[in-house]
Each structure stands twice: as structure tokens, then as C-alpha cells.
Amino acid sequence: MAQQINALTSRQTKILEELNNCVDEISGQQLHRILIESSSTMGLTTVYRHLRTLQQKGLVRCRNLPTGEALYSPVNRDHHHLTCVDCGRTLILKSCPLKNIELPKAQMKDFELLFHTLEFFGLCKHCLERQKVT
User: Which of 64, 74, 2, 1 is closest to 31 using CA atoms?
Assistant: First the structure.
């Protein structure tokens, strides 16, 4: 991982720094606004291209909401989620249920695992109660 971080461009390093500074996941557009506010001249398309490259290097994860919006965070934040398919509310799981899972060695011999994601979809209490009323 350290070798991959050393091979980053200055723009990729800036994006990774901003993601690490964020408390939560953010969209590419939110990240673009943060970069503009910090006087970094980088177009929105460039931000998304670098996010994709960072994801391919195993440094950034992408999570897609039911609305189609993509949210990004550094992989060192091992968060997993419960997401309401109605309102989009997201709750972070306190721990990773997959942390100690062992993957089949035969399948892993030709594959380098970079990160994993885990997400559960359902209805939050508020949306469930609202649906029962209607």
C-alpha cells in the first residue's frame, strides 16, 4: 500500500487528503467543491477520473446509493451500512461482520484483494411506519 501511495500524482494525493479530512463519505461533486474552495484547479471530470484510479489502486471505495448517487471514502475507513430504500437514510454498522471471513484459497491465488464493501437495504423505522399509515 505504501508503494501505491508513493506512486500517486499530486492531484491524486490532494484528493486522498481531502477524503481523509472528511468525517463521512462524500460525492464527487462535494469533493470537487471542496477542492475549488481550497484553490485547487481541477475539473469535475478530472476529479471523477482520479477517484476511479484511486479506487483501482485500492485506496478509495465507492458506495452507490439507491438514488444512483456515488459516495467515496478512503478504504482505511472500514464502514458498512444499513440503507433505507425509501428515504435513503444510512446507518453505519458498528463493526464489520466480514472481518474474519476466510476466502477460498483456490480462487484467491490469481486475485489480489484490495477492499470489500457490505451493505444491507431495507426500510428505516420512519418509512416503515409511514407506509403502514397509507
Answer: 74
CA quadruple 61, 65, 70, 71: dihedral, nearest 10: -50
Q: What is the CATH number of the domain that holds 82?
A: 1.10.10.10
Strand-pairing partners, residue 72, are: 26, 62
Percent pLDDT > 90 in the chain is 43
pLDDT at 134 over 80: no
**Domain encompassing residue 84:** 2-133
Tens-place pLDDT, residues 26-68:
999 999 999 999 888 889 999 999 999 999 999 999 988 888 8
| DSSP H or E run through 30 | helix 28-37
Element of type H or E holding 71: strand 70-74
Q: What's the total number of domains in the chain?
A: 1
